[in-house]
Specification:
The chain is mainly alpha-helical and about 130 residues long. It has 7 helices and 3 strands.
Amino acid sequence: MNETDGPLIIADTDLPCLSACEDLAAMFRALGHPARIAILRRLAGEQEACCGQIVDALPLAQSTVSQHLQVLKEAGLLTCDTRGRNCHYHLNWARLQQAEDASAAFWKVLNAAKADGQENPGKAMAGLTDAQDK
């Protein structure tokens, strides 16, 4: 096996950066549907909303909205405050900031590799975890 066939390596520690890559991929998966983006945009304009309020704002069935809310909640992008029979959803600003930082670090590494004319993006990706930690 040559150096490009193995897992991505963190330059300083020589450990696989799979955990950071998995976290970034999970975040992208959670954001990977237009309805989920619309839900986040809706919640960004308000302090909170229950499922019924979100359903009223989207052309989707209640069960579909509930599934999307669950995906966003599992990714940590939303929190839920249960009051009586209703769950009031809020954006998890700290987790959204982590997503923004991780995404920015990802693109920074790729753009740096592109600017350097690097033919092996795997080497550039090795710095991804270090950039996310800063």
